[in-house]
Amino acid sequence: xxxxxxxxxxxxxxxxxxxxxxxxxxxxxxxxxxxxxxxxxxxxxxxxxxxxxxxxxxxxxxxxxxxxxxxxxxxxxxxxxxxxxxxxxxxxxxxxxxxxxxxxxxxxxxxxxxxxxxxxxxxxxxxxxxxxxxxxxxxxxxxxxxxxxxxxxxxxxxxxxxxxxxxxxxxxxxxxxxxxxxxxxxxxxxxxxxxxxxxxxxxxxxxxxxxxxxxxxxxxxxxxxxxxxxxxxxxxxxxxxxxxxxxxxxxxxxxxxxxxxxxxxxxxxxxxxxxxxxxxxxxxxxxxxxxxxxxxxxxxxxxxxxxxxxxxxxxxxxxxxxxxxxxxxxxxxxxxxxxxxxxxxxxxxxxxxxxxxxxxxxxxxxxxxxxxxxxxxxxxxxxxxxxxxxxxxxxxxxxxxxxxxxxxxxxxxxxxxxxxxxxxxxxxxxxxx
Amino acid sequence: xxxxxxxxxxxxxxxxxxxxxxxxxxxxxxxxxxxxxxxxxxxxxxxxxxxxxxxxxxxxxxxxxxxxxxxxxxxxxxxxxxxxxxxxxxxxxxxxxxxxxxxxxxxxxxxxxxxxxxxxxxxxxxxxxxxxxxxxxxxxxxxxxxxxxxxxxxxxxxxxxxxxxxxxxxxxxxxxxxxxxxxxxxxxxxxxxxxxxxxxxxxxxxxxxxxxxxxxxxxxxxxxxxxxxxxxxxxxxxxxxxxxxxxxxxxxxxxxxxxxxxxxxxxxxxxxxxxxxxxxxxxxxxxxxxxxxxxxxxxxxxxxxxxxxxxxxxxxxxxxxxxxxxxxxxxxxxxxxxxxxxxxxxxxxxxxxxxxxxxxxxxxxxxx
Lengths: 433, 368
Known about the structure:
The complex is a heterodimer. Chain A folds into three domains: about 1-30, no CATH class; about 75-365, no CATH class; about 370-430. Chain A has six helices and 17 strands. Chain A is α+β, with helices and mostly antiparallel strands. In chain A, the strands form three sheets. In chain A, strands 6, 7, 8, 9, 10, 11, 12, 13, 14, 15, 16 and 17 form a twelve-stranded mixed beta sheet that branches. The radius of gyration of chain A is 32 Å and the shape is flat. Chain A starts with 16 loop residues before the first strand and ends with a helix. Chain A has helices at about 90-95, 155-170, 255-265, 290-315, 370-400, 405-430, and strands spanning about 15-20, 25-30, 55, 60-65, 70-75, 85, 105-110, 115-120, 135-140, 150, 190-220, 225-250, 270-275, 285, 320-345, 350-355, 365. By secondary structure, chain B is of the alpha+beta class. Chain B is about 30% helix and about 35% strand. Chain B contains eight helices and twelve strands. Chain B has helices at about 80-90, 100-105, 180-190, 200-205, 215-240, 300-325, 330-350, 350-365, and strands at about 1-5, 25-30, 35-40, 55-60, 70, 110-145, 145-175, 200, 210, 245-270, 280-285, 290. In chain B, strands 1, 2, 3, 4, 5, 6, 7, 8, 9, 10, 11 and 12 form a twelve-stranded mixed beta sheet that branches. Classes of the chains: A alpha+beta, B alpha+beta. The interface of A and B includes residues 4, 24 and 32 of A. β2 (about 25-30) of chain A pairs antiparallel with β7 of chain B.
């Protein structure tokens, strides 16, 4: 092969192509120009008209100035669940952008250890996770992978407080003056980090499956023919395809997964390309559960989904010696931010946490319990049955007529006991995160 | 894509250019299939090694004779070729009498088949999709006896990216069939790796017969152009550093086309079936792979069918007689019953040879 450099000068490469190294002389190679992610200069969100600080307004879906009414539209695309995801390669992880793309500082809580990204001019002195004031406002310590997408806040603070008040006033087992606390709660809008994971699972199962069969047999004891159900066991196998899309994995440690689960789900069709403007005036939690442990946890959840799908594939409920294997294909991940209003409030010298879904307004959290109401309700449920039963007891001893009240009493007592258990369980969990 | 005007449309060497072959030769032609040959001037009269149906006749007006540039040596001798034939003929149960390895071996005759070798310079522009391998970690979870075990394994994925560019490369000795029937023969004969080729040596060619191409270079260009594109695609993939290529487009001009010949060695032999139809067989003299049509003997099939049917009839009659004799000697009835069963089995088996031969030939009718 004889190389030559006399290649036509008239030829033009396709638009956007640039020359790249060729490994063979005599062949020129052009490739699309690499997409250089424009590293935005650290943005500061100040009003160009009056110089006041601007912030993202959920109602206007824009960055606005509360002083002069200036509105800066954000041009981020709503990509929804079609938002591009990354594969599990070292190179893609290294290729992710880092930092927040705007000038931000970090609020570190010495009490619970949480790190919170805040605006440079944010003078917060309280940790929204534990209400501690032992916080340090410091420069950002580490710059993790920048989230690619987020769901912007749709619920403003006023609606958030209204929802929280309604939630606090709901239910009979809580203190009557609890709804009044809602006005005093200082909700902080925070973007929480989440990993989303998708995979196509090909699962193969093998098990002994039992099929019921009725057979007749001669019972020597009763000297008669009887019927009985026997199970015939057969080895069977099968294969199921389990697609899993956008399984959410926690990216932050200091959040109660119990409360968070109650304010889900989020509508991921509203996922929007990340723009620092969405964070203007809002706090954001940087992830402290890295990709690998989050993926390990998600995989545990996914394989259980796969096992459930295999069990559903088995035609009967008699199964033994079950085994399966699951091959994960097209595994991908994203780092996204989801909006949450977070607050802690004090009631009777105790601290309680509340969360509001910043997209849907769903509220969940901890509430103090008025235990005297709970015990009163339990007593009211148990006493009628006990009294009726006790009344019937002497009649039973005298003759058969008292059987009916005793039975009714026992029935009412058992019903009351079940309902009391449910109430007690709810009351005990109301104060837990 | 244009072939440059300097490509030759005819064989580049004229008949009178004997010195190019470097030995005294004569041209011959088959009156049956029309194949043209070059063979040593002293060679005896022989059958056409391609169709094996007619003797070669001297050709008074031979075609333009190309110049061989390269040839591949006969790496197999007659005994090695015989072993290949013995292996190839195995498995034909009811074969014609001539389908015999020993007879086929005795009829082996060396033959060189022609392939075109073309040199040319490509100049042009190309665009394509190049695939780059990359590794991802893939998970495998297994559940057994109430426990999960996890495994992560690296998996290779391909990332496709567009590439474009210009090319100016000279390619030499791209091989193109010189015979119309060669692509069909190559399916059985396998390849003739170009790296085994040596410069043309008349001493080695002399004992064999050389088949002349029946595809002129003007027609061979339609076969050669895809080979140039294939080579260019392979090199553009390498130039881009990729591991895969697809949708390769080339806008090029081809200059300096130079056609020469490569001679590839085969052994030719043949057999006749029941009807006297001749079937040629070729053995790749480099690898021992065999190309030819296997035929079963329908005549043998019918003969065996007749033998089995007659046996069935005979056994049936004997069984019948023994059954009649059961009144005199009771065990004869038992033997007679067994013979009835044997007669039925033989009767059922009797069509098998004829049907097998018919089915065997029918399934190979596409090979001809």
